[in-house]
Design a protein that fits this description.
Layout lengths: L1 H30 L6 H28 L4 H13 L1 H5 L23 H30 L7 H24 L10 H9 L4 H26 L5
């Protein structure tokens, strides 16, 4: 248990360091003349980090007390509400339109600023995804029945579906996590916007997140070589 906690905290430190480097790199690129909309990038990355900010204290409290209490449960609920923000950034690839990376004849253009912009945005998306996967792993590690394969599959399927649906809500309905504070309005909006696309899109993102977590969880469970 102590080894796992140490490993988790080391990974948390690495994630924090990478976020700081990413922010500083963005400011440096902007100063160098690279066109980057840092406002939405930093905002979305900040929201993507919220699941980590909520999962870490929930994980530590539960590990310390050996059970889920009111505070840790409240933090876990908050984690679940913010979790879609981590997967949401995958859809931010649409912001690459107009980057002028491909010419009219189908030849890739040697536009350094365009390629730097692509790598920087993709880097932010990957960090956001790791935020979500890491936070999910922390919560999962303290789930009582995590050793039961059937329970694990059902639990992760539900989490992935809620995450996928949350991305749909944010991208297409333009709702935010804090809209849960207006439950009646939120429920009405959701019920009025259920169609075939809603279901298929949610399942597509859910499958993506489920597969990504399977890989991440496998890596987290692997023992480091001596």
């Amino acid at each position: 248990m102590k080894r796992r906690q140490k490993r988790n905290m080391m990974l948390l430190g690495l994630i924090l360091a990478l976020h700081l480097i990413y922010i500083l790199a963005g400011l440096g690129l902007r100063k160098a003349g690279i066109q980057l909309n840092l406002r939405w990038l930093f905002w979305n990355l900040g929201l993507a980090f919220m699941p980590v900010a909520l999962a870490v204290p929930a994980y530590l409290l539960t590990s310390w007390r050996r059970h889920w209490g009111p505070i840790s449960l409240g933090l876990a609920i908050g984690w679940l509400l913010f979790l879609p923000n981590a997967c949401y950034m995958v859809t931010d690839l649409i912001h690459l339109q107009g980057s002028q990376l491909i010419g009219g004849n189908g030849v890739y253009l040697q536009s350094l600023s365009g390629w730097v912009r692509l790598i920087y945005i993709v880097g932010g998306i990957l960090m956001a995804l790791v935020d979500g996967l890491f936070s999910t792993s922390l919560i999962h590690q303290n789930v009582k029945w995590r050793r039961n394969k059937v329970f694990n599959f059902c639990w992760m399927s539900v989490i992935s579906l809620l995450c996928g649906y949350g991305v749909y809500i944010g991208r297409f309905l333009r709702l935010n996590t804090w809209d849960v504070l207006q439950p009646k309005t939120l429920l009405l909006t959701l019920l009025q916007n259920i169609d075939k696309f809603t279901i298929l899109f949610s399942f597509m993102l859910a499958a993506f997140y489920f597969a990504a977590y399977l890989i991440f969880d496998k890596l987290m469970r692997s023992e480091p070589h001596a």
